[in-house]
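Bench notes, afternoon.
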Amino acid sequence: MAQNTKGMEFISATTHELKTSLTAIIASAELLSDELQLDKKSVSGRLIQSIIRNAHSIDERLSRFPEMAKLLAGDLRLQLEPVEIGQVIHNVATRFYPRIRSRSQSLTVELPNSLPLVKADRQYLEEILLALVANASKCTPERGKIKVGARQDGESLVVQVSDTGVGIPTEEQERIFQPYYQIKQDGEGKKTGSGLGLAITKSLVELHGGKIWVESEPGKGSTFAFSLPL
């Protein structure tokens, strides 16, 4: 146990130091981009955007390290309490609104008049939803639409995040929840993110005793859904 604690402390301290440096790199690159007012299609503009995009990707990976280490070590403990899912969804929508707006996308919340409380860890439930909304935004073009909803299905509560994005080929739908697996986002074969977000999300859902799945068709968007027992 002491060895695990020291390992987590080392990971936490190292991650913090690296993220501090990355924050400065990202801020400097974004300020440089604004100052030079370069055409994003020019060589210089594309290089700066590449720096920013890859720095954000590294930052995302670092953010996932502590959670992934706890999951792998079996040390992640949930603090279960009765949670109102509608409140969690609205909190996530509010937190994510600036990024949605920056991409000229729309985010709609559709909920029935009442839903039963679900026993869950509020913090990690928000993490699950944030990861799914972030994934939807990433895979959806500008002016695209994202919708979050929830419903009761027998003895389960089902939460859905839908988008009008690029969609996922059938042969890839089972693999997207594997660690480090990433889908090609465009015709150039570019991949974004760390490939850990959906893997961690799946583990967190399963720790709650639930299941997660995706329904998608290339060119017609995707719907990620997860269920939690009532």
